Amino acid sequence: MPELAAVLFDLDGTLVDTAPDLGAAANRMRTDRGLSALPLEILRPVASQGAQGLLRVAFHLQPEDPDFAPMRAEFLEIYAAHICEQSTLFPGMAETLTSLSAHGVVWGIVTNKPGFLTLPLLSALKLPVPPGAVVSGDSTARAKPDPLPITHALAKLGISAAQSLMIGDDPRDMAAGKAAGTRCWAAAWGYLEAGNDPRHWGADQIIQRSEQLEFALLHFNTAQ
User: Fold this and answer.
1) Which one of 10, 17, 21, 170 is the catalytic residue?
2) Known catalytic residue: 10?
Protein backbone atom coordinates (compact mmCIF):
# COMPACT_ATOMS: atom_id res chain seq x y z
CA MET A 1 0.00 0.00 0.00
CA PRO A 2 1.43 3.44 -0.90
CA GLU A 3 2.93 5.46 1.92
CA LEU A 4 1.15 8.54 3.20
CA ALA A 5 1.98 11.70 1.24
CA ALA A 6 -0.96 14.02 1.97
CA VAL A 7 -3.50 14.59 4.74
CA LEU A 8 -6.73 16.48 4.12
CA PHE A 9 -8.61 17.92 7.08
CA ASP A 10 -12.16 19.05 7.45
CA LEU A 11 -12.15 22.45 9.15
CA ASP A 12 -14.92 22.98 11.73
CA GLY A 13 -14.90 20.29 14.38
CA THR A 14 -11.80 18.56 13.03
CA LEU A 15 -8.90 20.99 12.71
CA VAL A 16 -10.41 24.02 14.45
CA ASP A 17 -12.81 24.38 17.36
CA THR A 18 -15.07 27.05 15.89
CA ALA A 19 -18.12 26.20 18.01
CA PRO A 20 -17.61 29.07 20.50
CA ASP A 21 -17.78 31.73 17.76
CA LEU A 22 -20.55 29.98 15.83
CA GLY A 23 -22.56 29.56 19.02
CA ALA A 24 -21.97 33.18 19.98
CA ALA A 25 -23.42 34.33 16.64
CA ALA A 26 -26.55 32.24 17.18
CA ASN A 27 -26.89 33.51 20.74
CA ARG A 28 -26.44 37.11 19.62
CA MET A 29 -29.46 36.61 17.36
CA ARG A 30 -31.42 35.13 20.25
CA THR A 31 -30.63 37.93 22.69
CA ASP A 32 -31.41 40.54 20.02
CA ARG A 33 -34.90 39.01 19.96
CA GLY A 34 -35.32 38.97 23.71
CA LEU A 35 -34.51 35.28 24.07
CA SER A 36 -32.03 33.85 26.53
CA ALA A 37 -28.67 32.60 25.29
CA LEU A 38 -28.33 28.83 24.96
CA PRO A 39 -25.48 26.95 26.67
CA LEU A 40 -22.66 26.15 24.28
CA GLU A 41 -23.04 22.43 24.97
CA ILE A 42 -26.46 22.58 23.28
CA LEU A 43 -25.10 24.31 20.17
CA ARG A 44 -21.73 22.55 19.88
CA PRO A 45 -23.03 19.24 18.45
CA VAL A 46 -24.44 20.99 15.36
CA ALA A 47 -21.57 23.42 14.75
CA SER A 48 -20.25 21.36 11.81
CA GLN A 49 -23.60 21.92 10.10
CA GLY A 50 -23.04 25.68 10.06
CA ALA A 51 -25.94 28.10 9.82
CA GLN A 52 -28.44 25.36 8.98
CA GLY A 53 -27.72 23.35 12.12
CA LEU A 54 -27.40 26.32 14.44
CA LEU A 55 -30.61 27.96 13.25
CA ARG A 56 -32.41 24.66 13.63
CA VAL A 57 -31.37 24.35 17.27
CA ALA A 58 -31.53 28.04 18.19
CA PHE A 59 -34.79 28.89 16.40
CA HIS A 60 -36.33 25.58 15.25
CA LEU A 61 -35.92 26.76 11.66
CA GLN A 62 -35.67 24.52 8.60
CA PRO A 63 -34.34 25.59 5.18
CA GLU A 64 -37.83 25.51 3.70
CA ASP A 65 -39.17 27.99 6.29
CA PRO A 66 -39.76 31.51 4.89
CA ASP A 67 -37.65 33.10 7.64
CA PHE A 68 -34.68 30.82 7.06
CA ALA A 69 -32.94 32.71 4.23
CA PRO A 70 -32.95 36.18 5.88
CA MET A 71 -31.95 34.72 9.24
CA ARG A 72 -29.16 32.73 7.62
CA ALA A 73 -27.87 35.94 6.04
CA GLU A 74 -28.04 37.67 9.44
CA PHE A 75 -26.23 34.79 11.11
CA LEU A 76 -23.43 34.80 8.53
CA GLU A 77 -23.00 38.57 8.82
CA ILE A 78 -22.66 38.38 12.61
CA TYR A 79 -20.34 35.38 12.47
CA ALA A 80 -18.13 36.95 9.79
CA ALA A 81 -17.67 40.04 11.95
CA HIS A 82 -16.43 37.88 14.85
CA ILE A 83 -14.79 35.08 12.85
CA CYS A 84 -11.97 34.14 15.21
CA GLU A 85 -12.51 35.69 18.62
CA GLN A 86 -12.68 32.38 20.47
CA SER A 87 -11.86 29.79 17.80
CA THR A 88 -8.65 27.82 18.25
CA LEU A 89 -6.89 24.78 16.84
CA PHE A 90 -7.94 21.66 18.69
CA PRO A 91 -5.38 20.43 21.24
CA GLY A 92 -2.40 18.79 19.57
CA MET A 93 -3.20 20.09 16.09
CA ALA A 94 -0.34 22.58 15.92
CA GLU A 95 2.07 19.78 16.81
CA THR A 96 0.42 17.47 14.27
CA LEU A 97 0.82 19.98 11.42
CA THR A 98 4.43 20.64 12.37
CA SER A 99 5.14 16.90 12.51
CA LEU A 100 3.57 16.30 9.10
CA SER A 101 5.74 19.01 7.58
CA ALA A 102 8.86 17.63 9.25
CA HIS A 103 8.15 14.23 7.69
CA GLY A 104 7.54 15.62 4.22
CA VAL A 105 3.78 15.05 4.26
CA VAL A 106 1.76 17.87 2.71
CA TRP A 107 -1.61 18.85 4.08
CA GLY A 108 -4.73 20.68 3.01
CA ILE A 109 -8.23 21.67 4.05
CA VAL A 110 -11.47 20.53 2.44
CA THR A 111 -14.45 22.22 4.05
CA ASN A 112 -18.04 23.04 3.19
CA LYS A 113 -17.56 26.43 4.84
CA PRO A 114 -17.79 29.19 2.19
CA GLY A 115 -14.57 30.85 1.15
CA PHE A 116 -15.47 34.29 2.50
CA LEU A 117 -15.44 32.71 5.98
CA THR A 118 -12.73 30.07 5.50
CA LEU A 119 -9.91 32.34 4.38
CA PRO A 120 -10.25 35.04 7.09
CA LEU A 121 -10.48 32.31 9.74
CA LEU A 122 -7.28 30.64 8.55
CA SER A 123 -5.50 33.98 8.38
CA ALA A 124 -6.50 34.84 11.94
CA LEU A 125 -5.41 31.45 13.30
CA LYS A 126 -1.75 31.94 12.31
CA LEU A 127 -1.16 28.28 11.53
CA PRO A 128 2.33 26.90 12.29
CA VAL A 129 2.55 25.42 8.78
CA PRO A 130 0.50 26.80 5.86
CA PRO A 131 -1.79 24.37 4.03
CA GLY A 132 -0.80 23.34 0.55
CA ALA A 133 -4.41 23.51 -0.60
CA VAL A 134 -7.61 25.06 0.71
CA VAL A 135 -10.90 24.02 -0.86
CA SER A 136 -13.99 25.76 0.52
CA GLY A 137 -17.63 24.87 0.07
CA ASP A 138 -17.93 27.18 -2.93
CA SER A 139 -14.55 26.42 -4.51
CA THR A 140 -16.04 23.67 -6.68
CA ALA A 141 -19.40 23.05 -8.31
CA ARG A 142 -20.34 20.51 -5.64
CA ALA A 143 -19.48 20.24 -1.95
CA LYS A 144 -18.96 17.19 0.28
CA PRO A 145 -20.25 14.46 0.34
CA ASP A 146 -19.45 14.72 -3.37
CA PRO A 147 -15.81 13.70 -3.98
CA LEU A 148 -15.10 16.69 -6.26
CA PRO A 149 -13.65 18.97 -3.53
CA ILE A 150 -11.24 16.23 -2.46
CA THR A 151 -10.09 15.43 -5.98
CA HIS A 152 -9.64 19.18 -6.55
CA ALA A 153 -7.51 19.51 -3.41
CA LEU A 154 -5.37 16.53 -4.37
CA ALA A 155 -4.85 17.95 -7.85
CA LYS A 156 -3.60 21.19 -6.27
CA LEU A 157 -1.26 19.20 -4.03
CA GLY A 158 -0.10 16.94 -6.85
CA ILE A 159 -0.74 13.80 -4.77
CA SER A 160 -2.73 10.70 -5.71
CA ALA A 161 -5.76 9.62 -3.71
CA ALA A 162 -4.05 6.31 -2.91
CA GLN A 163 -1.35 8.24 -1.03
CA SER A 164 -3.83 10.41 0.84
CA LEU A 165 -5.91 10.46 4.00
CA MET A 166 -9.11 12.41 4.71
CA ILE A 167 -9.90 13.25 8.34
CA GLY A 168 -13.29 14.62 9.36
CA ASP A 169 -16.00 14.67 12.01
CA ASP A 170 -19.00 14.05 9.77
CA PRO A 171 -20.25 11.13 7.64
CA ARG A 172 -20.04 13.34 4.55
CA ASP A 173 -16.26 13.54 5.04
CA MET A 174 -15.99 9.77 4.95
CA ALA A 175 -18.36 9.49 1.97
CA ALA A 176 -16.42 12.09 -0.01
CA GLY A 177 -13.06 10.56 0.84
CA LYS A 178 -14.13 7.03 -0.02
CA ALA A 179 -15.64 8.15 -3.32
CA ALA A 180 -12.43 10.01 -4.16
CA GLY A 181 -10.30 6.97 -3.32
CA THR A 182 -8.56 8.18 -0.15
CA ARG A 183 -8.32 6.43 3.15
CA CYS A 184 -10.56 7.99 5.80
CA TRP A 185 -10.29 8.59 9.53
CA ALA A 186 -13.16 9.77 11.71
CA ALA A 187 -12.48 12.57 14.19
CA ALA A 188 -14.50 11.47 17.20
CA TRP A 189 -13.48 14.62 19.09
CA GLY A 190 -15.61 16.70 16.73
CA TYR A 191 -19.18 17.95 16.75
CA LEU A 192 -21.41 14.89 17.01
CA GLU A 193 -25.14 14.96 17.65
CA ALA A 194 -26.65 12.21 19.79
CA GLY A 195 -26.98 9.03 17.76
CA ASN A 196 -24.38 10.08 15.18
CA ASP A 197 -21.94 7.24 15.83
CA PRO A 198 -18.61 7.32 13.93
CA ARG A 199 -18.60 3.52 13.95
CA HIS A 200 -21.34 3.68 11.31
CA TRP A 201 -19.54 6.06 8.94
CA GLY A 202 -17.38 3.52 7.13
CA ALA A 203 -14.14 5.06 8.40
CA ASP A 204 -10.90 3.10 8.16
CA GLN A 205 -10.03 4.22 11.68
CA ILE A 206 -11.59 6.29 14.46
CA ILE A 207 -9.40 8.66 16.46
CA GLN A 208 -11.02 9.51 19.77
CA ARG A 209 -9.03 12.58 20.82
CA SER A 210 -7.21 15.22 18.81
CA GLU A 211 -4.16 14.83 21.04
CA GLN A 212 -3.82 11.25 19.74
CA LEU A 213 -3.64 12.22 16.08
CA GLU A 214 0.06 13.03 15.78
CA PHE A 215 1.04 9.62 17.18
CA ALA A 216 -1.47 7.82 14.94
CA LEU A 217 -0.16 9.58 11.85
CA LEU A 218 3.45 8.82 12.73
CA HIS A 219 2.49 5.14 12.75
CA PHE A 220 0.17 5.36 9.75
CA ASN A 221 2.20 3.31 7.28
CA THR A 222 2.83 0.45 9.69
CA ALA A 223 -0.80 0.39 10.88
CA GLN A 224 -2.48 0.15 7.47
Assistant:
1) 10
2) yes
